[in-house]
Design a protein that fits this description.
The structure is a homodimer of 183-residue chains.
Chain A lengths: L8 H13 L3 E2 H8 L3 H13 L4 E4 L6 E4 L4 H29 L5 H28 L3 H10 L3 H10 L23
Antiparallel strand pairs in A: 1-3, 2-3
Chain A binds a DNA duplex (30 and 30 nucleotides) through helix 3.
Chain lengths: 183, 183
DNA sequence: TGGTCTTTTCAGTAAAGACTGAAAGTTTTG
DNA sequence: CAAAACTTTCAGTCTTTACTGAAAAGACCA
């Protein structure tokens, strides 16, 4: 299914099995259920652990290690977002920043840096935003998402309220502690 | 760099070159610049076209086909989101729905369907939301993103306004045309 | 229409990635 | 501390994917 998401087919199948089975499974049961070699399962689980997508636990009266997925789907989303950021986004941003630090040797290079900067800012904006909303309570997050495009009405509302408008005021106002302005 | 994003390394390099060069390039210049065979470039461009990430154009006085990326970075994000949805998300949702339509044969299967339903609803919520906000003007979109976690204050504000509260009221209210409620 | 320039296709090959079984490693237990 | 129970590692093999050059196909022009 979603086997093109940086994680391979086998690993995806293992994860899916753990997710739907809803209880901790030992490696050999996974191998049997999916008809993989024991060592393949071992490697898959190792990768899933490195993504923090499964956790290991010991069940009373059984010496084998058991694995399970987080029980909250939102938790899965949060972890995935964090890991992808750490592994893919951050290194990309870092390379972009390095390139932007170089002195452009000529007009062409200056233009290229301009385009790289645009890309950098875009990625950073998206990343920061996702990081921010991931921190919200699940309850708040779902409310926000359910609002969908309707969110724009809230923004309009905000812009129409003089003290909360998004434009910087020329004369300093008394601090309102509402923090709706953004730098 | 981001070569693990469902698109292979070669294709990524071609796209990056087109993006930073900022002008339409013919296939043979790409092949020369990146040291790929002409046929490899041809295939890469074909894939990029199928993703609608490059467009073909003819330049006066040159018989060769030239390719370029959209000039607006936001446009790139929008196209990427749409295509990924079409290719990956929608088929996944469709499979999930099919599974949910099946009558559970026993208690275990019922539980599994429950978990699949949770996943389905999560994906659908995220997808719908992203679809919705992609439709916003770039200007509005950036405002929203820049707000980051601060968005929660707007939600709180909304919840505190009696006529706009997110809870359904028991007695029907006169229509306010604000549409902030969501079904 | 034939000739020139350009792009696409495709069969074969090269490279990358996934999977396995055997062996080594680790932990628990009598 | 040795045997038993379990897990990990890794070299070799199998499978999948990427890339190439040669040939075919298409477009334009005289």
């Amino acid at each position: 299914m979603g086997s093109r998401w940086g994680i391979n087919r086998t690993v995806g199948q293992i994860y899916a099995l753990l997710y739907i089975s809803g209880r901790p499974l030992p490696a050999d049961e996974i191998a049997e259920a999916l008809n993989f070699s024991r060592s393949n399962v071992s490697m898959g689980l190792k990768e899933l652990q490195s993504w923090r997508l499964v956790k290991l636990q010991h069940l009373a009266g059984d010496r084998r290690e058991h694995f399970s997925t987080p029980d909250d789907v939102w938790q899965i989303v949060r972890i995935l977002a964090e890991e992808r950021r750490r592994r893919e986004i951050d290194p990309t941003l870092s390379v972009l920043r390095d390139l932007l630090l170089m002195k452009p040797g000529n007009e062409d290079e200056r233009e290229i840096q301009g385009r790289l900067a645009e890309m950098h800012d875009l990625i950073e904006l998206l990343t920061r935003w996702s990081e921010d909303v991931q921190k919200l309570e699940t309850q708040q997050l779902t409310q926000l998402l359910r609002l969908g495009g309707g969110i724009i009405r809230l923004l309009d509302l905000k812009n129409s309220l003089p003290l909360l408008g998004s434009k910087r005021r020329k004369t300093p106002q008394p601090a309102t502690e509402d923090g709706l302005d953004e730098d």
